Amino acid sequence: MDRLKEKFAQKAVPMAAEVKALIKEHGDKKLGEYTVAQVYQGMKGMIGMVTETSKLDAEDGIRFRGYTITELREKLPKAPGGTEPLPEGIFYLMLVGELPSVEDVVSLSNEWARRSIVPKHVFDVLDELPASTHPMTQFSIAVMAMQTESLFAAAYAKGINKKDYWDYIYEDSMNLIARLPRIAAFIYRNKYKGGVHIEPDSKLDWAANLAHMMGYEVFDVKRLMRLYLTIHVDHEGGNVSAHATHLVGSALSDPYLSFAAGLNGLAGPLHGLANQEVLSWILKLREELGGGLPSKEQISDYIKKTLEAGKVVPGYGHAVLRKTDPRFAAQQDFYNRYIKVNGKVDDICEIVQMVYEVAPAILESTGKIKNPWPNVDAHSGALLTHYGITEFDFYTVLFGVSRSLGVLASLIWDRALGSAIERPNSVTTEWIKKKIAATATKA
Ligand code: CMX
Predict the structure, then answer these.
(1) This model's pTM is above 0.85
(2) With 80 as the cut, is the pLDDT of residue 443 above it?
(3) Which residues contact 426 (CB under 8 A, 6 or more apart)?
(4) Which of 21, 34, 177, 280 is the most exposed place for a label (fewest CB within 10 A)?
(5) Which of 369, 379, 397 is the best mutation target for the ligand 1 pocket, counting ligand atoms within 8 Å of the beta carbon and taking the most?
(6) Measuring from atom 31 of ligand 1, which residue has the nearest CA?
């Protein structure tokens, strides 16, 4: 048993007994009530599941096992000479609820390197797809193609005890996470670099190896990749990618099937694809104005035009957050610390900043947008573009590589705690009308 798995077992086995007892003793206690609007409008604010790995607060943003992003940028182990956390560390934290030591992170990095071999047929499947296939579609197809490797599915077919589910889910999740950078880089090099591939370097950490296999060797890209793959990992359980993974997993679909479902949700423009949308939205603005830096008035007009056309302003708004996303702030800080130095500026990053200065007031003035502040996707593409990763339809794949850490850590917990199959109730509009009428009569 590897070091992390042993640690997880020490935590999960007693906790599963505790949760069982909690349900037995307090199962009938109420956690809240919900409204007609919540039922029609995406169940926002309804408590409907348990996610151990992170918790979102509308004002303060995301906390991973209680730690903010600012705290984690300081406390999580770094690569030698590095300044940003290694994503291995946040996976360890999410899974076992403790900050890892440098040795814990090195051990996990080695474990993923050991498990990182992708079966050939996955590359063959990708090679057969039309070149125009969106990178997110390719990514999801590759994960599905790799389902042949599921140890959980094979063990389940033979027959296993429920108590052992988490063990196989852990093994599948670790293998899947280990292989994702190789697959992502393969898609990138196939689509944009003429199919000339770069072999992995097992001495590099998970994020740096991804940058290396994509063809970026400079230290700053590896630094950005470590930050990027850390801040996108998780956003509690109700977001589309996390919920889809959890939901599909609740049918005891293995991690490959479950994570592919999460990726398909992440590929939507209101979720992860927004990072691609932001970049194309900014580039269109520049094109309309003939290049250079726009004025704030020109940006205001462009935002208003976007709204008048019945489109969303990508990178703005959130279903839970009601303040600037701390993941946006972390990227802004990265720009100021490492790019905007010695009088140097990056035009796209400057436009991101100018949009931030004018967009919230305009969005707020519509009177309907609940959160006029930027989310994580408002900034990420600008940083990638700065370092030459300009292929913006690939950006969501990077989000997906990162998101695997949160949703798969949660999936391991789901099986360890014996979470049941999800089956919420649904009603018809006729049923709701009758309910409203009955409530009015009583009043
Ligand atoms: N631009 C224009 N209109 C917006 C908007 C935006 N950025 N954000 C919300 N609205 C609109 C909604 O479309 C909705 O309009 P209708 O009543 O006409 O349907 C209204 O304002 C109320 O929406 P809300 O309650 O404020 O927001 P939701 O919880 O329904 O949706 C989100 C949240 C993120 C989908 C939405 O803000 C949005 O579409 N933003 C732009 C896309 C984006 O950046 N997504 C990435 C989110 C982060 C991530 O998951 O990666």
Answers:
(1) yes
(2) no
(3) none
(4) 21
(5) 369
(6) 319
